[in-house]
Automatic annotation (TrEMBL):
Top-level division of the source organism's lineage: Eukaryota
Record-linked InterPro entries: DNA/RNA_pol_sf, Peptidase_aspartic_dom_sf, Retrovirus_Pol_polyprotein, Rev_trsase/Diguanyl_cyclase, RT_dom, RT_RNaseH_2
Protein name from the UniProt record: Reverse transcriptase domain-containing protein
Entries under PROSITE patterns matching the protein: RT_POL (PS50878)
Source organism of the structure: Elysia crispata
Reverse transcriptase domain boundaries: 434-617
Length: 900
């Protein structure tokens, strides 16, 4: 038989987990066999028999149990295959197959990954199969390759596969070509160049140096560790396999994967050694260590000091878990670490220095900090900053978008006082010479007016008055960082450097169209801004986005607006100093790279405490700016209600630092109520003085630690809500608010649940996404929150559902142990306007309404006489039901407006 000369396909394994995929592969092999063996030309009954024979015993047993309907033929090969396929693939679950497609992990080689994707896509019924495969490849490949693919303007599946294949092939070729060179270069560090070329491994063969005069010299072999002439016949490692890496022609004792710089990537304790390697010009110093003269290389880019093991006694070395990162990015494990006395004989200075011990083939290095401590190097930081402040920086280009429905405006020129005309002209010429302003001669749709601001030093600042333009500009709505956003970064912070971006907005260039929008009229002609001007309502967001993009990946750098703060973290001052210097150096390098200019006059370097965003930051925590506190303490006694409101507004700044403020403010808050006659009583005077004394003893809040348990203490009184965020029994932040008139009529358990929701939502940045412990003094709340939601009253149901966004555990404690939350709940902290949006809208409507009083009285009277309105008022007071059908027929038309 002809088919006997062809190998049969393997039997169909009916017990496989993925039987459908198994059948698909088996069927492909079967069809090839049938075609090659000529079976397709045989009678149908013979074809069916051969198919079942190829399928195997398990498949035959299954086939015998399959029912055939009337009219179906068991001897038809097409129906035989169809029945087997129907059994193996009963139903294609499209959703499941697509889930498997999108979760298919990336693997190498790339061709294997692409093949698996294509095979899986056949089961997914994609309308745009090529597009789906292309997207999956881009989503799954490594980051550097993903960036390359995303740079393509219009990329097809074929182009995607071509790029990935070329990238993988290039990477493999480079790895093969450069791996040996990379190892050889690193190993040369610290060695004296040999007279003859050493033998090396290349493409599976060994080449020995046969230069005259070198072959007969006995030297230590780099492949076996013994001394012999450089002939492969003499090397015992020739032809042997390494017990460490499995490579050929070397022993484990000389394996490069042990003794060369390793590529470990899992170390969290890395130190950079920028100068280890070959260099033509090196700054060195000869110092005494252990009564030996040691020549150190001064490496201002290194994070640690290194010393060769020959200068250190064995008993002086302790174990180290540090990883050293070399100048070329590779890594190595040191032999240990030690602390030795170092003597600078020129100055007579002796200093204990911590060293990392390395092998004798590497250089002895001193880091920047040690060089400074030994008076070997002096760094003038002021000069470094001054070099970056000569011209405006460059952080990119921005566009401005305007609302086309708003008509452009052309405003007339403002008059300039005669005494300032010359100074204004000089300042305008200066800005044009620097390229910040440019003359305009062509027509422009928008013409704004010029604004002049006189600085404290008498110089002028030229600005644009863009009020009409601001109404037309479309904002980016980029989130501006706040102090609360960056507070967690200050944990273990001890050293600070505060920097200011000079002429911050001018770092952003405007494109041609945006520049024309900023045209302004001056007494000396029209000019337009080529850089982002101050005054635009979009300037802050545009600048913040560009600056954040430029420095966001730098560790320990906090940026809010145009302020930069370098933070040195560490458990000791020495550790924090090293951490600070490393981060500061990285920031200055980035500023130089990105063209960010710093203000020398405002630089405050290596401070123990700094004023940042209106607060004093130190290793003790966060406190309000003493100047603002002092201003509040020195305020004179209020003379009218406006003075009271001004005082309350100033004190509001300290809300998060004062845990008993609301009680003292109660008499003053009464004076600010509408229709209340101003009368400064002794009670008000006492409250006023108590608040000032309380400010003088402002507590210091602790920094939030994401690794410690977090507690929210909450409480509700008849008038307000209080909440305190705490860790280890110390407050992180306080919050309180008054209850609306409607909320004051709620049951106490509802108020207490409202306090829980208020605390969780008020501290959302801390409480969301982690486990929280909420403490209340209301025992019934602990019970009802554990019951099914359907068993709670409707208002409580809504509050509990709001709290379900958070993973919290509610516990009960005596009220005496919740003093902070209890005090805060007594009243809002000088917040006269309610936090309820609905009440705010109602108040605004009344203030802006022009309805005569007589008409309002008539509306009130008719409302009180209308039965439907009385039913509606009662529903509003009690609360709206969940379903419209639960309302009386007369109130149902208003259900859609229940939340308004």
């Amino acid at each position: 038989m002809a088919e006997a000369s062809f190998r049969l396909p393997p039997p169909l394994k009916m017990s496989e987990d993925n039987l459908a995929d198994q059948f698909r592969k088996w069927k492909s092999q079967l069809e090839i066999y049938l075609e090659a063996s000529g079976t397709n030309n045989k009678p149908p009954k013979t074809q069916s028999a051969i198919i079942l024979h190829c399928a195997g015993a398990e498949a035959i047993e299954v086939f015998e149990q399959i029912d055939f309907a009337d009219g179906e033929d068991r001897s038809d090969p097409t129906q035989v295959l169809g029945k087997l396929q129907q059994y193996c693939s009963p139903r294609n679950n499209e959703v499941l197959e697509r889930y498997r497609f999108w979760n298919l992990p990336f693997c190498t080689p790339f061709d294997k990954f692409a093949t698996e994707l294509k095979a899986q896509s056949e089961k997914c019924n994609f309308l745009e199969k090529d597009m789906m495969i292309r997207d999956k490849i881009i989503f799954a490949v490594p980051k550097h390759l993903k960036e390359r693919l995303l740079r393509e303007p219009e990329i097809t599946l074929k182009r995607t596969i071509d790029i990935c294949q070329a990238y993988e092939q290039t990477a493999n070729n480079l790895k093969e070509m450069k791996q040996e060179d990379k190892i050889e270069k690193v190993m040369k560090t610290g060695f004296k160049k040999p007279t003859g070329k050493p033998f090396r491994q290349y493409e599976g063969t060994r080449r020995f140096n046969t230069r005259p005069g070198s072959a007969n010299k006995d030297r230590e072999c780099r492949y076996c560790g013994k001394k012999h002439t450089f002939n492969k016949e003499e090397c015992p490692a020739w032809g042997k396999t390494c017990n460490h890496c499995g490579g050929k022609n070397h022993f484990k004792i000389k394996c490069k994967k042990i003794h060369c710089l390793t590529e470990e990537m899992d170390s969290d304790n890395e130190a950079w050694l920028n100068a280890i390697g070959d260099g033509k010009k090196r700054a060195t110093a000869c110092l005494k260590v252990n009564n030996c003269e040691v020549r150190f290389q001064l490496d201002t880019a290194a994070d640690v000091n290194t010393i060769q093991q020959r200068f250190v006694k064995k008993e002086q070395v302790t174990k180290s878990d540090q990883t050293l990162v070399m100048w070329n990015g590779t890594k190595m494990r040191p032999l240990g670490e030690t602390k030795l006395q170092v003597l600078n004989e020129k100055t007579g200075q002796t200093l204990p220095v911590k060293f990392t011990v390395v092998k004798n083939n590497l250089n002895c290095l001193l880091s920047l900090t040690t060089c400074q401590d030994l008076s070997l190097v002096t760094i003038n930081h002021e000069k470094l900053i001054a070099q970056t402040t000569e011209e405006p920086g460059t952080l990119g280009t921005a566009s401005l978008k305007v609302d086309p429905d708003i008509k452009p405006q052309i405003l007339p020129c403002r008059k300039v006082p005669f005494a300032l005309e010359k100074k204004v002209e000089e300042e305008l010429n200066s800005l044009m010479n620097r390229g910040i302003l440019q003359r305009v001669t062509e027509p422009s749709d928008w013409v704004s007016q010029m604004a002049i601001v006189e600085k404290k030093n008498g110089s002028l600042r030229i600005c644009i008055d863009p009020r009409p333009l601001n109404k037309a500009l479309k904002r980016e709505h980029y989130k501006l960082p706040t102090l609360d956003d960056v507070l967690p970064k200050f944990r273990e912070a001890k050293i600070f450097t505060k920097l200011d971006v000079k002429e911050a907005f001018w770092h952003i260039k405007l494109d041609e169209e945006a520049s024309m929008l900023t045209t302004m009229i001056t007494p000396f002609g029209r000019v337009r801004w080529t850089r982002l001007p101050f005054g635009l309502n979009v300037s802050s967001e545009i600048f913040q986005r560009h600056l954040t993009t430029a420095i966001d990946d730098l560790p320990g750098i906090v940026n809010v607006a145009d302020d930069l703060l370098v933070i040195g973290n560490g458990s000791t001052d020495e550790e924090a100093q090293r951490d600070h210097d490393r981060k500061y150096k990285l920031l200055k390098m980035r500023c130089s790279e990105k063209g960010i200019k710093l203000n020398q006059d405002k630089a405050r370097e290596k401070q123990k405490e700094v004023i940042f965003m209106g607060h004093k930051i130190s290793d003790k925590g966060i406190e309000p700016d003493e100047q603002k506190v002092e201003a509040i303490k020195k305020m004179q006694t209020p003379k009218d209600v406006h003075d009271v409101r001004r005082f309350c507004g100033m004190v509001q700044y300290l809300a998060k630092f004062l845990d008993k403020l609301s009680d003292r403010l109660q008499p003053l808050r009464e004076l600010t109520k509408k229709d209340t006659q101003f009368s400064w009583s002794s009670e008000c005077e006492t409250a006023f003085n108590e608040i000032k004394n309380l400010i003088a003893k402002t507590p210091v809040l602790r920094f939030y630690d994401p690794n410690k348990p977090l507690e929210v203490q909450v409480d509700s009184s008849k008038d307000g809500l209080g909440a305190c965020l705490m860790q280890d029994g110390q407050p992180i932040e306080f919050a309180s608010r008054t209850l609306t008139e409607t909320e004051q009529r709620w049951a106490q358990i509802e108020k207490e649940m409202l306090a829980v929701v208020f605390g969780l939502e008020r501290f959302d940045q801390y409480t969301f996404g982690r486990k929280i412990f909420v403490t209340t003094d209301h025992k019934p709340l602990e019970t009802i929150i554990r019951k099914p939601l359907s068993e709670a009253p409707r208002r409580l149901q809504r509050l509990i559902m709001r709290s379900n966004r958070y993973a919290f555990e509610l516990t009960w404690a005596k009220g005496s142990s919740l003093l902070i939350a209890d005090t805060l709940s007594r009243a809002a902290i000088c917040n006269i306007a309610s936090s309820e949006p609905g009440l705010t809208k109602e108040t605004e409507t009344k203030e802006r309404s022009n309805i005569p009083d007589a008409m309002l009285e008539k509306l009130r009277a008719q409302t009180s006489e209308d039965d439907d309105m009385q039913v509606l008022i009662d529903i509003i007071k009690r609360g709206w039901p969940e379903e419209k059908s639960e309302l009386p027929p007369s109130a149902r038309p208003y259900f859609d407006f229940a939340t308004q």
